Amino acid sequence: QAQLAESGGGLVQVGASLRLSCVASGRSFSTNNMAWFRQAPGKEREYVASIDWNGSTALYVDSVKGRFTISRDNAKNTMYLQMNRLKPEDTAIYYCAADSRLGIVPGIRSESAYDYWGQGTQVTVSS
What number of other Cβ atoms are within 10 A of residue 127's Cβ? Predict the structure, then answer.
């Protein structure tokens, strides 16, 4: 059974950095688009960033552009989210997701496009 597992979250101060990891098990997602979403307290889950199957295309929501970097290592079945210059508004549960369809244009922001999800990892940025 395919699973995604996030790690790397934590409590940090404003301006700090964190690197989230998302490890796939049970199957490979090396040919699939993947993404990061987040859900802040009392808010809807929102798209953060996505990456195509070979890492050549990375797309971001405007609020994280220039601060976050999405990447992947298909040999390790792992996707990453490097988060720099963290702000209190980045506080959320971060989820990784994968789209099992092939040949899809990357950058889809709708949750419904992704059919595999991790359990989430908490990121808290204190001021």
Answer: 8
- Sequence letter at residue 58: A
> If residue 102 lies in a helix (H) or strand (E), which one and from where to where?
none
pLDDT tens for the chain, 127 residues long, are 999 999 999 999 999 999 999 999 999 999 999 999 999 999 999 999 999 999 999 999 999 999 999 999 999 999 999 999 999 999 999 999 999 999 899 899 999 999 999 999 999 999 9
Say how far apart CA 39 and CA 86 lie, in whole Å.
16
- Listed in order, strand segments (DSSP E) in the chain are 3-7, 10-13, 18-25, 34-39, 46-51, 58-60, 68-73, 78-83, 92-98, 116-117, 121-126
